[in-house]
Amino acid sequence: MAQQEPVTSNPVTSTVEDGVAIVRIANPPVNALSAAVRGGLVRAVEAADADSSVRAIVVTAEGRTFIAGADITEFGKPPVPPTLPDAIASVEATSKPVVAAINGAALGGGLEVALGCHARVATPSAKLGLPEVKLGILPGAGGTQRLPRLIGAVPALKLMTSGDPISAKEAQSLGILDEVAEDALAAAKALALRLAGGARPAAASAATNLGDRDAFEAAAGAMAKKGAENPSIAACIDAVRAAFDKPFDEGMAIERAHFIRLRDDPRSKALRHVFFAERAAARIPGLPKGTQPRPVARAAVIGGGTMGGGIAMSFANAGIPVTLIETSEENLQRGLERVAGNYATSVKRGSLTEEARGKRMGLIEGKVGLEAAAGADVVVEAVFEEMGLKKEIFGKLQGIAKPGAVLATNTSYLDVDEIAASTSRPGDVLGMHFFSPANVMKLLEVVRGRETAPDALATAVEVGRKLAKVPVVSGVCYGFIGNRMLARRTAQADRLLIEGAMPEEVDAALNAFGFRMGPFAMTDLAGLDIGWRIRQASGKKSPVADALVEAGRLGQKTKRGYYDYAGDGRTGVPDPEVRAVIERVSAEQGVTRRAIPPEEILERLLYPMINEGARILEEGIAARAGDIDTVWLNGYGWPAGTGGPMFHADSLGLPRIVARLRDFAQASGDESLRPAALLVRLAEEGGSFAALDEKAAA
Ligand code: CAA
């Protein structure tokens, strides 16, 4: 085997093996297509094309991914040539065949590089996809032109509008891959040499497999309807349509124009923020260097209610055996039946195979009595929200749980330090706050107690990641990050009713902003009795909500709450009885009702939350503004296109928020609405939450 020295410098190197130039991209961690990679790729491919000892070229990458796409960090910066479309055009234009050896994820621009090659081979575990829509853009390096020509407009459009990656097997059946092989590099080399023996194969840009125009228009119509609020979907459709109507180069120009317009839109900026904020949230601040998570082979969940059952399902879904613990055989059976019912529904809906259902149920073992927690490496308590009960359980657990087991409480509000103090091993105790339904919702607040050991914290975050959650670390305070901010919004929503708004107006303002559900529709879904029970325990009042509960209006479950659900039981309509209750409360409080414009409703709901977010940052409860955004995006349905509350605050301009909060505090006499010191300081300094996070990261 003839082997030569590398001919190009980092991050793209090239060696010649048996007459094949192997061009290797090494740009850790995910081989994103930075300017240096694009330039290096062009130089390496052109040099190989010019080298008479080379008959064919293979492009591959080092590490666990092939290429994860464009370097997203470059998006806000001045462009550095060559552009990715130009780099890919150089690859496609070589006189010698180029084969992509896809050794891992080929996403976005990474798949587009592969499409610029003349053939593609991948390892069986590789994932291929065009996730650009998730970043508010569209494939911008020929994906919308080459892929439809190669595999057909309908499957190509599906891939780019879903944004979800597909397996190598699926990609092969679609015609994206020529081969799937364990040793993709060896297979790509062999294929490249075979191709070199004949004429250079056709480029994807010249392929003619677009398929039926009518079928495309039908699929595009359905997708446009489903994704009506997503400008990326419309752009993908327009660009793919150009593949039918225009020559390749004109199609490329249309794609480019959409790409630049969408990339520079605030929506894409927000979605990029979301991408990086979620990843930053995984970094735990202040952990001693070298802290390792404790091994977790088995879990236990105490409490087989809706929450406990959902948490047990999360473990089983991740392949971790779990014991579900109840106090009686009867409660246990009820809990297990609920879990079984949830899985059965998934099978019926087609989202779970019968085989997977059996496997998951097999990982959940039901037991009566706390002693069953003895074998677990992580124990999650999910019993009724009552301090006395939780302390009793943790007190007993200290003697039952094995040494080193992490003891987590799923409390939503209670003081984790007080719970920890009820054991002789407070270092093992922390909060793991799941969101309902726990087997579905992505957010996991990991609550770090005063005494929580660093490795216990690292374990909880690692477990969260294994459960496919988005873990965010919070300090101890009432309601942690999410519910503490939510309480501010709830207070304003209640107050708006008394001042003059109706539930449907408040909900509509948040719907228009992008929340799928407003606070009152949400309360109806969850049940008004939940908040009522919390208020009873804490001695707080909410006159409208209390009156509705007393009238037996508990929400959807009683077909009446803030709305009337007499129709299909799920669609609420405004109810004159509720209007009467609200007007009565206003009168009792001596309030002259007024019409409140939707913009004011929105400001009243969002700004106090942002203000509370600033306090949460000030107090160090959250380490980064991005963590707060991550909580709201993954746990409370904040619309991703605005980036989360703190990113949204930056976009609006902090001085405006400070001024409005001062107005609200003045008008209501409610001192909690006064802007937080941090918010005022940032507004005065011309600072932003994003800049604060950047400073903290540095
Ligand atoms: N650009 C810049 N940085 C990136 C990146 C990208 N495209 N993709 C990942 N990274 C960074 C992450 O921010 C993270 O950095 P930190 O360690 O500093 O937090 C690091 O790489 C590792 O990423 P993950 O934590 O996500 O690693 P993972 O193993 O869980 O997942 C992955 C790997 C599946 C490739 C995942 O990173 C991913 O989905 N990346 C983004 C893919 C994407 O959206 N590509 C499209 C880009 S846009 C494009 O290509 C437009 C075009 O058409 C020209």
Automatic annotation (TrEMBL):
Statement: the UniProt record of this protein carries the keyword Lipid metabolism: yes
GO biological process terms, semicolon-separated: fatty acid beta-oxidation
Signal peptide, first to last residue: none
SUPFAM superfamilies for this protein: 6-phosphogluconate dehydrogenase C-terminal domain-like, ClpP/crotonase, NAD(P)-binding Rossmann-fold domains
Superkingdom field: Bacteria
Catalyses which reaction(s): a (3S)-3-hydroxyacyl-CoA + NAD(+) = a 3-oxoacyl-CoA + NADH + H(+)
Functional pathway: Lipid metabolism; fatty acid beta-oxidation
Every 3-hydroxyacyl-CoA dehydrogenase NAD binding domain range: 299-474
PROSITE patterns tied to this protein: ENOYL_COA_HYDRATASE
Domain 3-hydroxyacyl-CoA dehydrogenase C-terminal: 479-565, 601-686
A GO molecular-function annotation: enoyl-CoA hydratase activity
Keyword Oxidoreductase: yes
Protein name per the record: 3-hydroxyacyl-CoA dehydrogenase
Organism: Muricoccus nepalensis
Lineage: Bacteria, Pseudomonadati, Pseudomonadota, Alphaproteobacteria, Acetobacterales
